């Protein structure tokens, strides 16, 4: 059993691949083995998380997720914990594995309770074994009531395989009230500790959209099954493998970044991206502000070279384009797309592309046959992604991996779909989901900082997908390590990155 942290990459498997693995393993093992392993792992983790629990409530659903809960109940009963077990199943309809688990629980001395326990404390534990990967619709009735009880209560909750009701592929809920109630309770500072033990495979939904809030601390048990035969739907990103810089290098070794943006009233966005590129290690950073009244030098950052956009030779450069660009950036995009060696396209540049088919054609033309000729990274947040795909932000959020992949197919670029569990997708690559970052990044300018960080890595010669993955990881990590007692501002974040 493994606690999942951002320190290592992990393959993530969707429901279809998980079902294939489950089928193959079930056929190769004695009956009920997988569920017995799942139940034992759940019981062990429960005991480790709540060693002093006076009451353990195991809420079991009608399918095999409930069977895992019943198996866990048998172990906890034998270990003297006397769990309160409520089951929503029907013996006439329950799957064979679950029925066997029910029999084993009864054998161990478990008596099914008619109702959940009341007055659980922070020392106690709820085990959520209502729904796993078979979650098919919005929970109703007693199931919905029990899920609401978990989220409103103070007792820690251990979700078996998934937080019940969550779609394992997307991290969304059939109705959002569960996720929204979890988020609003957490925002109010009164949230119980939440854990999830993912079984057989780690699923993408645990790490993106509402998944991160709903799943809490994620643990994993592979049930002794090797997943190598299946292709992952995504990779949970690990840390960059950064080595020290070689001694015999100079500023030319780390490339030039040209930040193009900062229309009237929005110079700050471009300067933040430039600051981030500088601190991210770019050899030289040029800034072309789109405000004719803009200052000729930034005295607080004299390293930045402020130039007129028309005077920049972008052919050897990495253009970071769009931060605070307003509508003024639109007429510069043809030059950027046709000449810049590498490009990061952000914010207003993305909005310009969304409404201009000629720009879309030029953007697609940047991609060589090998997909890497003139590396281009698009960095939309969900609303920008929605504009690019002619969809709504809700539709984008309903399937973040799918939306990122659609953008890749449409534009042939690397795509960074920002948000909780940022998705990085690229032609011919298994997508990555970033495990770092938190809601402290929800403040103006942090997206500009990310664009500058990606630009610095592209300028240093990193392949585009790697540059994007590494920058997103480091950007989030800086937020995760931010001192509790200090406000996170984009300016400080830009200067803190590396
Ligand atoms: N088999 C094995 O070897 C292993 C399985 N494992 C475990 O099994 C889990 C998958 O089990 P599963 O396929 O039975 O699906 P599960 O998540 O229990 O849900 C299906 C049931 O719930 C019902 N239902 C659905 N939505 C509902 C709703 N909203 N409200 C109410 N009911 C709803 C649905 O009813 P129906 O739609 O048929 O009416 C059906 O009865 C997996 O996540 C893992 O925990 C592991 O132990 C590894 C070994
Ligand atoms: K569950």
From TrEMBL:
It catalyses: (6S)-NADPHX + ADP = AMP + phosphate + NADPH + H(+); (6R)-NADHX = (6S)-NADHX; (6S)-NADHX + ADP = AMP + phosphate + NADH + H(+); (6R)-NADPHX = (6S)-NADPHX. Keywords: ATP-binding, Isomerase, Lyase, Metal-binding, Multifunctional enzyme, NAD, NADP, Nucleotide-binding, Potassium. HAMAP family: NADHX_dehydratase, NADHX_epimerase. Binds 1 potassium ion per subunit. This is Bifunctional NAD(P)H-hydrate repair enzyme. Its cofactor is Mg(2+); K(+). The gene is nnrD. It comes from the Bacteria. CDD domains: YXKO-related. Its EC number is 4.2.1.136, 5.1.99.6. PANTHER family: ATP-DEPENDENT (S)-NAD(P)H-HYDRATE DEHYDRATASE, ATP-DEPENDENT (S)-NAD(P)H-HYDRATE DEHYDRATASE FAMILY MEMBER. K(+) binds at residues 65, 128, 164. AMP binds at residues 418-422, 447. Homotetramer. Residues 234-498 form the YjeF C-terminal domain. Residues 18-231 form the YjeF N-terminal domain. It comes from Rhodoferax sediminis. Pfam families: Carb_kinase, YjeF_N. In the C-terminal section; belongs to the NnrD/CARKD family. Belongs to the NnrE/AIBP family.
């Amino acid at each position: 059993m493994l606690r999942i942290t951002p320190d290592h990459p992990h393959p993530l498997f969707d429901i279809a691949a998980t079902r294939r693995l489950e089928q193959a393993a079930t056929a190769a093992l004695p009956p009920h083995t997988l569920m017995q392993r799942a139940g034992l792992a759940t019981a062990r983790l429960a005991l480790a998380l709540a060693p002093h629990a006076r009451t353990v409530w195991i809420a079991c659903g009608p399918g095999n997720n409930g069977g895992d809960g019943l198996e866990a109940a048998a172990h906890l009963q034998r270990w003297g914990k006397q769990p309160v077990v409520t089951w929503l199943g029907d013996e006439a309809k329950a799957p064979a594995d679950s029925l066997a688990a029910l029999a084993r629980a009864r054998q161990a001395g478990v008596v099914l309770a008619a109702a959940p326990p009341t007055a659980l404390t922070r020392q106690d534990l709820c085990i959520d074994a209502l729904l796993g990967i078979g979650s098919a619709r919005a929970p109703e009735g007693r199931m919905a009531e029990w899920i609401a009880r978990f989220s409103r209560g103070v007792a820690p909750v251990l979700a078996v395989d998934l937080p019940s009701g969550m779609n394992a592929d997307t991290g969304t809920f059939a109705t959002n009230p569960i996720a929204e109630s979890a988020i609003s309770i957490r925002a109010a500072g009164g949230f119980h500790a939440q854990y999830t033990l993912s079984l057989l495979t780690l699923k993408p939904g645990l790490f993106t959209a509402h998944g991160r809030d709903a799943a809490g601390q994620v643990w994993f048990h592979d049930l002794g099954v090797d997943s190598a035969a299946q292709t992952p739907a995504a990779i949970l990103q690990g840390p960059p493998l950064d080595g020290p810089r070689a001694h015999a290098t100079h500023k030319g070794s780390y490339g030039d970044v040209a930040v193009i943006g900062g229309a009237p009233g929005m110079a700050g966005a471009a300067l933040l991206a430039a600051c981030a590129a500088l601190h991210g290690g770019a050899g030289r950073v040029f800034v072309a502000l789109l405000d004719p009244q803009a200052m000729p030098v930034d005295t607080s950052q004299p390293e930045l070279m402020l130039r007129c956009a028309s005077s920049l030779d972008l052919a050897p450069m990495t253009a970071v384009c769009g931060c605070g660009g307003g509508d003024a950036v639109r007429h510069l995009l043809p030059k950027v797309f046709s000449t810049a060696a590498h490009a990061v396209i952000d914010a207003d540049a993305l909005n310009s592309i969304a409404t201009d088919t000629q720009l879309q054609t030029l953007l697609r033309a940047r991609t060589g046959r090998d997909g890497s000729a003139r590396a281009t990274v698009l960095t939309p947040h969900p609303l920008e992604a929605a504009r690019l795909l002619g969809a709504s932000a809700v539709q984008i959020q309903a399937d973040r991996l799918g939306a990122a992949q659609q953008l890749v197919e449409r534009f042939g670029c690397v795509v960074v779909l920002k948000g909780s569990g940022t998705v990085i997708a690229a032609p011919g690559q298994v997508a990555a989901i970033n495990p770092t970052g938190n809601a402290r990044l929800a403040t103006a300018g942090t997206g500009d900082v990310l664009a500058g960080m990606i630009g610095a890595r592209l300028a240093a010669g990193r392949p585009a997908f790697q540059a994007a993955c590494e920058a997103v990881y480091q950007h989030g990590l800086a937020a995760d390590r931010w001192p509790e007692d200090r406000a996170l501002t984009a300016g400080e974040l830009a200067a803190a990155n590396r």
